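Please check this:
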Amino acid sequence: MKSVLCLLLALAVAHAAVLPFKPNCMTVLCASNAVCADGTPAPTPAWSCCPTALACKDLLSILAPISNCANVMCTMDVKICPDGSRAPVPFGECCPSLSACKPINTAQ
């Protein structure tokens, strides 16, 4: 009997974990109309009842880094920044780039 209850409990927990969380938005009043940087109305994400600028495509593309660099082949040359340090890997990329070097202040 105990094992049957444990099995039923495990199935219920697994079933609840698979279902996406959908908030009840029937009584929610959104405070403002969010707008994306390009002027379009902001979308309403699945986890929210109100539109938010955090769900704008332009912002998501900036924040979404490349998650798997395992199959990327970088050039074998060592990229050296003007200050003499090795070139860093820019955010969202897999290989070092001179474009990510810190600018040098030449004004004296």
Notes: Residues 13-19 have pLDDT under 50 and may be disordered. DSSP finds two helices and no strands in the chain. The CA atoms of residues 28 and 49 lie 7 Å apart.
